[in-house]
Amino acid sequence: MYCLQWLLPVLLIPKPLNPALWFNHSMFMGFYLLSFLLERKPCTICALVFLAALFLICYSCWGNCFLYHCSDSPLPDSAHDPSIVGT
């Protein structure tokens, strides 16, 4: 279970408010997870616990899933404020 200390913080990294950065964020997180799985080779139990947690977060549409954005979940009000999300 030592390898979970490197996997679980990945679920706590917030998704950016700017929708233009969602693709970059998901690619970074995907490449991080792929490189972690290839380099560190976590145990089966750790990998299954992490994948189950990732599935539950994405399935519940809490808004922190980095794989996709749920169409039902509204953006925070600050996401439409140009002074915060100006590009």
UniProtKB/TrEMBL annotation:
Q: Which UniProt keywords apply?
A: Membrane, Transmembrane, Transmembrane helix
**Keyword Transmembrane, does the record have it?**
yes
Query: What's the domain of life for this entry?
Result: Eukaryota
- Principal location listed in the UniProt entry: membrane
Q: Where in the cell is it found?
A: Membrane
State the InterPro entries in the record: BCALP
Entry keyword Transmembrane: yes
Record-annotated membrane-spanning stretches: 20-38, 45-69
> What is this protein's function per UniProt?
Acts as a tumor suppressor; induces growth arrest at G(1)/S checkpoint and apoptosis via RB1-dependent and p53/TP53- and NF-kappa-B-independent mechanisms. Modulates expression of genes involved in the regulation of proliferation, cell cycle and apoptosis.
The UniProt family comment states: Belongs to the BLCAP family.
Name this polypeptide is given: BLCAP protein
Please name the source species: Polyodon spathula (North American paddlefish)
- This chain is encoded by the gene named Blcap_0
